[in-house]
């Protein structure tokens, strides 16, 4: 069976869903092919930065996100319990909401705007360019979808990027971490992110809705704890304090790395979100950057559809988004370098640099970098 649509989005993660909402709201005929029968439910992003919130507002889920999220208005950097730096984001706080909740809100919004547009269990196995459009083949080879444009929003491994023959190149920034959600130590303010720059590696803690916190610890993969007890013991060892609550989620270890696709488009197919760029989670930019891409891409696609659905309309989109992605990878690499294990004189130099960055005139720039301004 062949059905023709304006845009076929491959991948129903946060970026594909937001893009589909924007396209549907603008009157385009859009489908989202998502291979998973149900959401993955794996803990990932929490941070929603001001430009990401602007994108969510445009998609119509801003009020719902703001109602559920915990605001982060302040950031504190410590070393061995001593304050190194303090920044405030009062004007535009960062919001904290687990990614699965944001995705659920976007999915519900898409169901309102374009009922049935999200097709779960649709695994895309091939894309083929035709003179006036592009075909998408689903697993089993039985169903084919024809579209004017195809968007690869299919994540870091992006099968569609491979199908298009587009490579992905490593960028600077690579380190191992483990994370879990738990209560705080009792010393953190509810709206404050706390970064402990310890000699053995950084420990970060961020507010979550409901008074809990997301803890992220830099630790080699081979020694990462695999249960709540081990995680609490590692925290106690690094910080000298215990989290009072036992309600830890199962710790999950992850390797932060960075990659940028060689190109962001080929013909009628275009990459967005993690398919185009893998940004280290340290600094919490990846999903937000994908949403900023999606706002740009929705406008680019709307213009191209108005203009008779011309064959390769993505050059300017690619130029703008590549520049932003490069900037985000540099900021993330800096964040990761600051949290590396360090001792002796190098630690003193690092601490002095952090203190200096938190004083005028650098402080304003630091707060802007942490809230993704200029991306
Ligand atoms: C531990 C961790 C913490 C993070 N924290 C933050 C943070 O605080 N802030 C932030 O901005 N970012 C953060 N990120 C990054 C963020 O999670 C990603 O940038 C975001 O999920 C990317 O969204 P996406 O929609 O591009 O891709 P994904 O979320 O990966 O979604 C891709 C979708 O495509 C589907 N798919 C794949 N192949 C096919 C196919 N062939 N056919 C059909 N469907 C397919 C997949 O099933 C998946 O649902 C974090 C990441 C990690 C790992």
Overview of this protein structure:
With 375 residues, the protein is α+β, with helices and mostly antiparallel strands. The protein folds into two domains: 2-65 and 98-170 and 257-333, 3-Layer(bba) Sandwich (FAD/NAD(P)-binding domain), CATH 3.50.50.60; 73-96 and 171-256 and 341-370, D-Amino Acid Oxidase, subunit A, domain 2 (D-Amino Acid Oxidase, Chain A, domain 2, 2-Layer Sandwich), CATH 3.30.9. It has helices spanning 14-25, 50-59, 62-68, 99-113, 159-163, 228-239, 286-306, 315-338, 344-357, 362-370, and strands at 2-10, 30-34, 47-48, 70-72, 74-79, 82-88, 94-96, 118-120, 124-130, 133-138, 144-152, 168-182, 192-198, 201-207, 213-218, 252-261, 265-266, 269-271, 277-278. Strands 1, 2, 8, 9, 10, 11, 17 and 18 form an eight-stranded mixed β-sheet that branches. The protein has an eight-stranded mixed β-sheet with strand order 6-5-13-14-15-12-16-19, sandwiched between helices. A hairpin with a 5-residue loop joins β14 and β15 (213-218). α1 packs across α2. The longest helix has 24 residues, at 315-338. Residues 10-16, 33-36, 44-47, 99, 123-124, 153-155, 159, 179, 254, 273-274, 281, 284-288, 290 line the site of flavin-adenine dinucleotide.
Distance between the termini: 42 Å
Q: What is the CATH domain class of the largest domain?
A: Alpha Beta
Portion in beta strands: 25-35%
Q: What is the third-level CATH name, the topology of the largest domain?
A: FAD/NAD(P)-binding domain
Provide the low-confidence segments as ranges: none
Number of strands: 19
> Based on helices, strands and strand pairing, what is the structural class?
alpha+beta
Question: What CATH architecture of the largest domain would you give?
Answer: 3-Layer(bba) Sandwich
Largest sheet, strands/sense/barrel = 8 strands, mixed
Bound molecules: flavin-adenine dinucleotide
Return the average pLDDT rounded to an integer: 94
What is the H/E order?
Answer: EHEEHHEEEEHEEEEHEEEEHEEEEHHHH
Could you say which overall geometry the principal axes of the C-alpha atoms support?
Answer: elongated
Number of domains: 2
Percent of residues in helices comes to 25-40%
The CATH superfamily of the largest domain is known as FAD/NAD(P)-binding domain
Q: What is the tally of helical segments?
A: 10
């Amino acid at each position: 069976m062949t059905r023709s649509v304006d845009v076929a989005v491959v991948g129903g993660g946060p970026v594909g869903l937001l893009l589909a909402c924007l396209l549907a709201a603008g009157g385009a005929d859009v489908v989202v092919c998502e291979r998973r029968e149900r959401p993955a439910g794996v803990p990932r992003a929490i941070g929603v930065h001001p430009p990401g919130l602007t994108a969510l507002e445009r998609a119509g889920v801003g009020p719902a996100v703001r109602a559920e999220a915990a605001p982060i208005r302040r950031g504190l950097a410590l070393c061995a319990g001593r304050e190194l730096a303090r920044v405030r984001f009062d004007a535009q706080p960062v919001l904290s909401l687990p990614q699965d909740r944001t995705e659920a809100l976007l999915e519900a919004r898409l169901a309102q705007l374009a009922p049935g547009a999200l097709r779960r269990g649709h695994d895309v196995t091939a894309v083929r360019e035709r003179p006036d459009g592009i075909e998408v083949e689903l697993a089993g080879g039985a169903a084919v979808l024809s579209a004017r444009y195809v968007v690869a929003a299919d994540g870091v491994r992006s099968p569609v990027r491979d199908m298009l023959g587009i490579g992905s190149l490593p960028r600077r920034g690579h380190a191992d971490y483990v994370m879990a959600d738990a209560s705080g130590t009792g010393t953190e303010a509810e709206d404050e992110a706390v970064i402990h720059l310890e000699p053995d590696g950084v420990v970060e803690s961020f507010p979550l809705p409901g008074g809990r916190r997301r803890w992220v610890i830099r630790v080699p993969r081979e020694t990462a704890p695999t249960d709540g007890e081990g995680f609490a013991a590692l925290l106690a060892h690094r910080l000298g304090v215990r989290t009072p609550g036992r309600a830890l989620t199962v710790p999950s270890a992850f390797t932060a790395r960075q990659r940028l696709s060689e190109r962001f488009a080929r013909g009628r197919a275009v990459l967005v979100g993690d398919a185009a760029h893998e940004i280290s989670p340290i600094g919490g930019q990846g999903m937000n950057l994908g949403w900023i891409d999606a706002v740009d891409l929705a406008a680019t696609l709307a213009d191209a559809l108005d203009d008779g659905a011309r064959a390769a309309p993505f050059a300017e989109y690619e130029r703008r988004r590549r520049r932003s992605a490069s900037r985000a990878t540099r900021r993330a690499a800096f964040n990761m370098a600051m949290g590396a294990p360090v001792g002796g004189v190098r630690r003193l130099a690092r601490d002095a640099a952090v203190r200096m960055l938190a004083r005028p005139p650098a402080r304003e720039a630091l707060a802007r970098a942490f809230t993704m301004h200029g991306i």
